[in-house]
Design a protein that fits this description.
CATH superfamily of one domain in chain B: Spore Coat Polysaccharide Biosynthesis Protein SpsA, Chain A
Strand content of chain B: 5-15%
Radius of gyration of chain A: 33 Å
CATH architecture of one domain in chain B: Alpha-Beta Complex
Order of helices and strands of chain A: HHHHHHHHHHHHHHHHHHHHHHHH
Mean pLDDT of chain A: 87
Helix content of chain A: over 70%
Shape of chain A: elongated
CATH class of one domain in chain B: Alpha Beta
Strand order of the largest sheet of chain B: 3-4-5-2-1-6-9-8-10-7
Order of helices and strands of chain B: HHEHEHEEEHEEHEHHEHHEHHHHHH
CATH topology of one domain in chain B: Spore Coat Polysaccharide Biosynthesis Protein SpsA, Chain A
Structural class of chain A: mainly alpha
Structural class of chain B: alpha/beta
Low-confidence stretches of chain B: 469-475
Number of domains of chain A: 3
Number of helices of chain B: 16
Oligomer: heterodimer
Distance between the termini of chain A: 89 Å
Radius of gyration of chain B: 23 Å
Chain lengths: 418, 475
């Protein structure tokens, strides 16, 4: 009994192996033949299309007839059109006349296979056919839980990149996020292809989500806005967002404000409030906005940020301080001579990150007003081993007196080691 | 005594029957799932492209971390392909983990590196970092020189020095396809569930000339051992990993090429230095962390992100590698045994882990027992030679079936072996591996079990010549 079962199994598996081998070889053979013909057809169509499009002749009825009866010809022609004539003035009208749009619209509205539909949506997107936006939106509505399909629809709408396409995304986004069928990153990426031309539309959508309490969609939209260049409207909108106190929204609003060019001033008080926000990433972002905007004396009121529990906050605030350059040397010396290792380290790192070190060395000259302070700071940096004198410092660029003083500093370190 | 022996043998035979039934059942299931996934993937490839992400500033930047210990023969090749990635924004960090050869010097000379000082923030504790080297011409390239601490320690040092939210660990003997990183990242970005780790498809480099990778025309090695390993890798990646990934049970990501969310790895404590297979164990840690935090996550596998790695060409080196892998698997499973049959860990806890521990791991041991029991059974008159032969034939034929099916999967997906000669050779080696090679693997696994149970395992370093039939880089 058992032996018979085994014999049967062996026979079935052996037949399967033969089947697999035959499939593998025949598949390869068929594909080779198919691709060879496809390549030949592409060359043929390239030549013919060159002629047709250059002569601005739209008499393509014969072409349409050819491709309707032969799917491989249709594929070849479509590929040639897309690859070589994408930017041609007659591209879309030719594609429409050849029946591609009609074919893909029909697939999108009535085909059962979601993969075929996705393929059709992708093609419509590549053809940038604005007339299909409504159909794309409707198809997405019917398959809101299908991640793959929704991603393709979003990308297609991004490729179409018109007012209508953006409005479709705005409508679809909350539900797509609710059903986890699109990732935040993907949605942001798609939305970014519309900006900055559509910044007002994005802001409008964001307000709408805010009213409808669709926070996830609002976050995505705000994230997109945060990466766009600013306008008066967007600055006010983001300042307004800060009033909500919501960490995730605030951090995005702050990111947008940090991109505002320095010529555009705005009310800093809501941002200053954020320096005391319980979430460290909000504090970091607020520091980013204030850098180069906040008055020095105002900044010195927030020295406690050098002792913040998050190193990112300490470092960013130290960088903000260092950006005041020689004006805060005394403050830096006080920190360096203090007992707070966090603050000391942050200042040292900020000097390095901000590229302030070269300026600092130029003060190492007895006639400089900052001589004493600069010396203390350089000595400290040298002692903690943050300066690679041999490889990174071109001492030849400094006056003799400065060089001499620096050499003495080096000797001090050697002595201290000894 | 005689009766006891008889009973034992009968029980063993029944056990083996059940065991093989279960094992082959799982294989068949994985193969079926892989086949469905591959067909879907092949269709999807027609409308999903990575160009959009390649041209976007929004594609998350990645730090490629390459730990290296005495890799003078291969390091330049690896760095070169890492730096040539078609990806919007990335950095390459090589960690020279106390090499005693000229690994560091070769990097310094080739890329005209300069020593620099940077603050090293050891968020993950590591051995001391001595110095940093950077290149003025290649601003996204950094080399760390540190005290030897092992691969896990070097990876942790790389994480500490990295600037980006994702990092990709790459073995120092591996070369990446030009868009490997991008293809992997597309899986991460487009997945609505946060992907915290993603493994790539690892292929065998031996026999190939480096430029051929970019022209998509790889060669097959002439030597037998690498050929067997090619079939083995295809089987492991094309049906094992695709199958488990489709069931959300990815447990093993290759150390040769995997992408991680940096924050997740840091919060899990980084790579463990006490593990032989730190790349395997980190996945367990991530699973635990996110399950305990009750956060949605996915550990994924990117079939189209390809990395080529050099495999051993001598039995001695191969044995070392296989023992290390096996001990690593045991260590990780033992350390995280609380995950076994634990419904909190879903597919991994209920299926993937029990499969590895109860079905995969004892395979070699059962095979060894078979060598003892079969003659004994024959001597006691309990063994039907006909039945035994049929059983053996079944095992071989089923193995050939799996290998052939995997080659069909390869044909349907990546199709990286384009000539007819490649196809014939792959199919032949898929059949030949059942006569000697599989048994050798079983022997190394038994050695690993012994080492794991009775000795303290020391890392068995596999020497990489960088020459193994691979022609030198033509720069």
């Amino acid at each position: 009994m058992m032996q018979n079962i085994l014999i049967s199994l062996i026979a079935i598996i052996t037949v399967s192996i033969v089947g697999i081998i035959v499939t593998t070889f025949s598949r390869r053979w068929i594909h080779e033949k198919r691709f060879a013909r496809l390549d030949r057809l592409k060359i043929e169509y390239k030549e013919r299309l060159d002629h047709i499009l250059k002569n601005e002749s739209i008499s393509i009825a014969s072409l349409r007839q050819e491709i309707e009866s032969d799917p491989l010809r249709s594929e070849a022609l479509e590929e040639v059109m897309y690859r070589h004539y994408n930017e041609n003035f007659h591209f879309l009208s030719t594609i429409e006349a050849l029946g591609y749009i009609e074919k893909y619209q029909s697939t999108l509205s009535s085909h059962a296979s979601i993969q075929k539909k996705a393929f059709a949506a992708d093609r419509i997107g590549r053809f940038r056919h604005n007339g299909s936006v409504a159909l794309l939106e409707e198809s997405a509505r019917n398959a809101l839980k299908n991640t793959e399909f929704i991603n393709v629809i979003f990308k297609s709408l991004a490729l179409i990149a018109t007012d209508e396409a953006l409005k479709s995304i705005v409508v679809l986004l909350p539900d797509a996020l609710k059903h986890h069928s699109v990732s935040q990153k993907n949605a942001e990426m798609v939305l970014l292809t519309f900006s900055p031309k559509y910044l007002d539309l994005l802001l409008e959508a964001c307000s709408l989500y805010r009213i409808n309490a669709q926070k996830e969609a609002q976050l995505v939209m705000l994230d997109t806005i945060s990466r766009c260049s600013s306008s008066t409207h967007s600055i006010h909108y983001c300042l307004d967002i800060l009033q909500s106190g919501d960490a995730e929204l605030s951090v995005r609003a702050l990111r947008h404000l940090s991109n505002v060019s320095l010529e555009n001033s705005f009310d800093l008080s809501p941002v200053i409030q954020m320096l005391k926000h319980p979430k460290w990433f909000v504090r970091v972002q607020a520091i980013g906005v204030l850098k180069h905007r906040l008055e020095r004396d105002e900044a010195l009121k927030f020295l406690f940020l050098l002792e913040d529990s998050a190193w990112q906050v300490r470092r960013n605030f130290a960088e903000l301080l260092v950006s005041y350059g020689a004006n805060v040397l005394t403050m830096m010396v006080q920190i360096i001579q203090g007992n707070d290792n966090y603050a000391k380290e942050s200042i040292a790192e900020a000097i390095q990150m901000e590229g302030f070190f070269a300026e600092l060395l130029s003060y190492i000259s007895p006639e400089s007003a900052y001589y004493d302070n600069a010396k203390i700071i350089v000595q400290y940096l040298n002692n903690i081993g943050l300066i690679d004198w041999e490889n990174n410092i071109d001492l030849g660029a400094y006056p003799e007196l400065t060089r001499q003083t620096i050499t003495n500093l080096l000797a001090t370190k050697e002595n201290s080691h000894a | 005594m005689h009766n006891f022996l008889l009973l034992s043998i009968l029980l063993f035979n029944a056990g083996v029957g059940v065991y093989y039934g279960l094992l082959n059942g799982v294989y068949s299931l994985l193969l079926t799932i892989a086949l469905i996934s591959v067909i879907r993937q092949a269709r999807k490839a027609k409308y999903v492209e990575d160009q959009l992400w390649l041209n976007s500033n929004e594609t998350p930047p990645v730090s490629i971390i390459i730990p290296a210990h005495n890799e003078e023969n291969v390091i330049l090749r690896t760095v070169e392909t890492a730096l040539s990635q078609e990806y919007p924004s990335f950095e390459v960090i090589v960690i020279n983990d106390g090499s005693t050869d000229s690994t560091l010097q070769k990097l310094i000379d080739t890329y005209r590196l300069q020593k620099t000082t940077l603050l090293y923030r050891d968020i993950l504790k590591t051995e001391a970092v001595h110095s940093f080297y950077y290149s003025k011409e290649i601003p996204n390239f950094l080399v760390l020189d540190k005290e030897q601490g092992g691969k896990a320690d070097a990876l942790n040092a790389g994480i500490n020095s990295s600037h980006y939210p994702y990092f990709c660990s790459v073995d120092s003997d591996s070369v990446l396809d030009p868009r490997a990183l991008l293809k992997m990242m597309v899986h991460v970005i487009e997945n609505p569930v946060p992907v915290i780790a993603c493994g790539g498809d690892v292929r065998v480099l031996n026999g190939m000339n480096h430029p051929e990778i970019t022209t998509n025309l790889p060669e097959l090695p002439n030597k037998t051992l690498p050929m067997f390993q090619i079939v083995e890798y295809l089987r492991s990646f094309l049906f094992g990993r695709i199958g488990w990934n489709a069931m959300n049970g990815s447990m093993i990501l290759s150390g040769a090429f995997s992408l991680f969310l940096k924050d997740a790895v840091i919060r899990s404590g980084g790579y463990s230095r006490d593990q032989v297979s730190e790349d395997l164990e980190i996945v367990f840690k991530l699973q635990k962390l996110y399950t305990h935090e009750n956060k949605p996550f996915k550990i994924s596998y990117a079939l189209d992100a390809i990395c080529w790695t050099e495999v051993p060409e001598s039995l001695h080196e191969l044995g070392r590698q296989r023992r290390r892998w096996q001990v690593g698997l045991f260590q990780a499973c033992w350390k995280h045994k609380s995950m076994m049959f634990n419904p909190r860990y879903k597919t991994v806890g209920l299926f993937a882990l029990p499969y590895f521990v109860l079905l995969e791991a004892p395979g070699a041991f059962i095979e060894l027992l078979g060598f003892i029991v079969m003659p004994l059974a024959y001597w006691l008159g309990l063994l039907s030679v006909e039945y035994f032969t049929l059983f053996l034939l079944f095992a071989i034929v089923y193995g050939i079936f799996l290998s052939s099916a995997t080659i069909l999967l390869e044909e349907m997906t990546i199709k990286r072996y384009p000539s007819w000669r490649h196809l014939i050779r792959l199919l032949s080696y898929g059949a030949l591996e059942h006569f000697g090679y599989r048994q050798l693997n079983a022997w190394w696994r038994i050695q690993a079990i012994y080492k794991f149970l009775f000795t303290s395992y020391t890392w068995e370093y596999v020497h990489k010549s960088g020459k193994s039939e691979t022609k030198p880089i033509q720069k």
